[in-house]
Amino acid sequence: MEILATARHGMGGEFKLVKVSDDFYMYGTQKEFDSIFGVSVDRCGTLVEVLNHCLSISELCKNNITKYKAEKEKSKKPEGWQLLIDYEKSELDMLLLFAETLKSI
């Protein structure tokens, strides 16, 4: 298993993008890698599958950030919305890093 990239996640923990074999990649936490259950099936597969997943979920993150910012503007208690925005931004940064890493292979 070769670690290709690591990223700190905003809610704690470190995610790793790894190359497992010739055309099998996955990303997750060390705890997931060590678990008998492994990483989620949507976060592993061929290079193209993992890349497409990262790009797809990054678009969802962008949409969520936009929605949460709009809700924050209307809210009398914006702190909760800011937590959600920060979470989505950390997820987005991680996914874009992993996508760029996979594109460079």
Task: Walk me through the topology.
Elements: E1 2-8, E2 14-21, E3 24-29, H1 30-34, E4 44-45, H2 47-74, H3 79-103
Antiparallel strand pairs: 1-2, 2-3, 3-4
Textual characterization of the structure:
The chain is α+β, with helices and mostly antiparallel strands. It has helices at 30-34, 47-74, 79-103; strands at 2-8, 14-21, 24-29, 44-45. Helix 2 (47-74) packs antiparallel against helix 3. The model has no long low-confidence stretch (mean pLDDT 95).
Global structural class: alpha+beta
The outline comes out as elongated
Query: Main sheet?
Result: 4 strands, antiparallel
End-to-end gap: 16 Å
Index terms:
105 residues; alpha+beta
Quick overview of this protein structure:
The chain is α+β, with helices and mostly antiparallel strands and 105 residues long. The protein contains 3 helices and 4 strands.
